[in-house]
Design brief:
The chain has two helices and 17 strands. It has 245 residues and is mostly beta strands. The protein folds into two domains: 127 residues, Immunoglobulin-like; 76 residues, Macroglobulin (MG2) domain (Immunoglobulin-like, Sandwich). The longest helix has 21 residues.
């Protein structure tokens, strides 16, 4: 009987320890974020889906890694920790799949975000991210899931409008983008938009030559929209991808 009581005590203590360890990193409101919506325009993205992490340990570092991401080849998905956003595109094999980390004070709450930009392509996609406390990787590790689906048809989607004498290259671009065929126009305005619709690069050229070069070193890796106007007319709208050097 004495041995049984001792064994029971060990089991209870061990179970309590496991339960305490399993709560080292709490996920709220849950480990899964889901978005279902209609296509609106080519730059439209799913509203950001938030998940909150409660660090119940004395450790101050949280690590994470994207395990998988599947989507239409035209889509771009993102995962943001409190410090940075990382973008993933299946069709061109881009995305940070290494181990990343951020600081989270003991007993504090941190927010991470998921989102998807469908670029007028109705489809569904998903992403799985493993996250854990630095010195308690086995007990604290959790997997976060994001599911997104877009239906319908874009009303005002960008369609890669282009004049036959204009072209942009290379594709994808790393540090320099060339635009050819603008010498037939005056007062050219070139704008490069990020996925949120913000102007990342703007150039106004009164009398462009046959070939102009645009430095793209300042752009982060990801998908962008190039819009070119000349003489007050839309000449070209094209989606490009920027790769890290």
């Amino acid at each position: 009987m004495k041995h049984f009581a001792t064994l029971l005590l060990i089991v209870v203590v061990f179970s309590g320890f496991n339960r305490a360890q399993s709560q080292a990193l709490q996920i709220t409101p849950g480990d899964t974020a889901i978005y279902n919506g209609m296509l609106t325009d080519s730059n439209g993205s799913a509203p950001v889906q938030n998940i909150y992490l409660v660090n119940n340990t004395s450790d101050s570092e949280i690590y994470w890694q994207v395990l998988t991401y599947t989507e239409d080849s035209s889509w771009q998905m993102s995962f943001c920790d409190p410090n940075n956003c990382y973008y993933y595109s299946v069709g061109n094999g881009t995305g940070n799949i290494g181990i990343n980390h951020f600081l989270a004070f003991p007993n504090s709450t941190s927010k991470v975000d998921f989102s998807a930009t469908p670029y007028c392509m109705a489809d569904s996609g998903k992403m799985a991210v493993r996250i854990w406390v630095a010195h308690d990787s086995v007990a604290s590790a959790k997997t976060l899931y994001f599911f997104a689906a877009f239906n319908g048809v874009c009303v005002s989607g960008i369609q890669n409008i282009a004049r036959s004498n204009l072209r942009i290259y290379p594709s994808p671009v790393i540090s320099n983008m060339a635009v050819e065929g603008l010498n037939a126009y005056n007062n050219v305005k070139l704008t490069v938009y990020d996925v949120l619709g913000n102007a990342a690069i703007q150039k106004n050229i009164t009398q462009p030559g046959a070939l102009i070069n645009v430095n793209t070193d300042a752009l982060h890796a990801g998908i962008y929209i190039v819009s070119i106007e000349g003489d007050g007319t839309k000449l070209l709208t094209k989606r490009i991808e920027k790769l890290e050097q």
